[in-house]
Amino acid sequence: MDVLTRRRFLVASGVVGATALAGGGAAVRLTDLFATAGDRDPEARTLVLVTLYGGNDGLNTVVPYADPAYRDARPELAHSAEEVLKLDDGFGLNPALAGLHRAYGDGRLAVVRGVGYPKPDRSHFRSMDIWHTAQPDRPGNTGWLGRWLDHAGADPRLAVSFESALPPLLAGERGAGASVPVGEQRTAAGLPASTLAALGVAAPGESPARARAAACFTDLRSVDEMIRAVREAPDGGGPDDDGETAPATATGGARASLEAQLDLVAQCVEAGVSTRVFSVSLGGFDTHADEKQLQQVLLGMLDTALSRFHTRMAGSEAGRKVVTAVYSEFGRRVAANGSDGTDHGTASNMLLLGAPVRGGLYGEPPSLTDLDDGDLKFHTDFRDVYATLLTDVLDTDPGAVLAGWKGHLTGVL
Asked: Which residues, by range, are in coiled-coil regions (predicted)?
């Protein structure tokens, strides 16, 4: 989604009200976040939530290559047994996910199959609303991590988004997480550093609005400098090997790359900031046409970003306590459409990655022949995964956040 579409989503869904927005990104600066460095419990784990906007095709991500029904349903889109990166005798990862395949071999990647919810909705907005609120029957006006934030003290610095708009999942009853967007902004060219610095300093007697504008300009320069430092580092996330920079990743417009978002997460983790939850995203997965090549490009971007991030995290004690969860609002239909793509579906996979994760395949894989009107039947409720993350990463009773939910994944963390 582009920024405008996502803002409309925030309002139309009713998930984020004026109070939550005021308590979120508009009230917290990047400098406020780094001011908490050293405040967190060194034993505490960190959750990084990666949202894949658009509805990623789960069957071509975790590929049931040995099932003849898979190739029968999508002969032009199916990946062959020779193409996939095998996990076992029946399933393999998309060829673009080489880094995640190595993580699986190292026991650090868990693949949770058949994840969904009752009475699935194929609307992007409605389904994402359900995932963000964790309330399938009637999505409320708070996000599941926003409710966790309420229980954790409502300090917005505990839950941070490096996206272009505050995601509804971080909206609580009493406040919301902090939004620090990482965009393609540019400061004025040709101005001396002293002039740029002066623009970020509030003058005595200025109105609160002007002072806030100065603070925002300072934050913008800070983010620009951090991203520039990462890109210029010898092992940083610079241009791709072919010399071209990564394309825009959002479904409806340019936005900072997932690598740039995760680079900032890595710096925060290494600095020991108080943040326990980070939200980042990658868009473009609404693959109604010419899916096979497009999805491989997008999954390649995901794989590069996650692999570099977790290699970096493995180098520090705080980084080895990071758990990353990857999900999308729904999967795609089993059968291909007439445009070499797939249409909106239902159940899909979730990926959990990190040193605390016990790697492997979890959950029952949905049947490709016993379908619900052409769609996969889910076997694992996504609230089971959320409950596991709340319990084993955020040290929180999931019942207090998920309306008494009792489900849980066993053995994954």
From this structure: none
What is the pTM for the complete model shown? 0.81
Task: Between 351 and 21, name the one with better pLDDT.
Answer: 351
Range of the domain at 99: 3-186+208-401
Q: For the chain, what is the domain count?
A: 1
- 411 in a structural domain: no
Classify residue 412: in a domain, yes or no. Answer: no
Q: Is residue 376 part of a domain?
A: yes
Residue 214 lies in a domain: yes
Average pLDDT across the chain, whole number: 83
Residues 309, 235, 248, 52, Cα dihedral to 10°: -10
Question: In the structure, what pLDDT confidence band is assigned to residue 34 with cuts at 50, 70 and 90?
Answer: confident
- Token output for 111: 């693949």
Alpha carbon dihedral 37, 39, 43, 48, in 10-degree steps, equals -50
Q: What is the CA radius of gyration of the chain?
A: 21
Q: DSSP code of 176?
A: B
- The burial of 57, by beta-carbon neighbours within 10 Å (0-12 exposed, 13-18 middle, 19 or more buried), is given as buried
**Look-up of token digits 């995601």:** 167
383 close to 408: Cβ distance less than 8 angstroms: no
Q: Cα–Cα distance between 344 and 351 in angstroms, integer?
A: 20
Domain of 88, CATH number, reads 3.40.720
